[in-house]
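Give me the fold.
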Amino acid sequence: MYREYLDLTKEIDCQNAIINDLKERTRDLCENPCKTYKERNEIKQLLNCLDKEKIKLNIMINRAMQLQNFGSKRAYGAIELATTTIEENLLRSAVSCSKTIKCASANSKPKTAQEICDALDDSDSDSDDDCC
């Protein structure tokens, strides 16, 4: 039974790597504020794959817990999980929030670094009045 547990922990590590890869690819696509139809579909597919891979991971985790509780009497190490609920919610909210960002039109002139700094300075001066 302990051998099965050791093999299962290796599979869990591989599954964590798969999930982290899917999250990274999704995050990379989500960072682009102007997504094409193809990119939005790819994000949806990646999120679906992520859900399926998480189900596989949960099955493996449940089996590992079963082996820990009812297997041989040993000191079992901690099993690391790849994702948390907070990370998933943040990832999904980033996808939904990015839909509200409008792409810059081709006619609009890009802002210079000085204009961006000035805009940030203006917003900072308002918040400084409220400080203690």
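The chain has one domain: 2-102.
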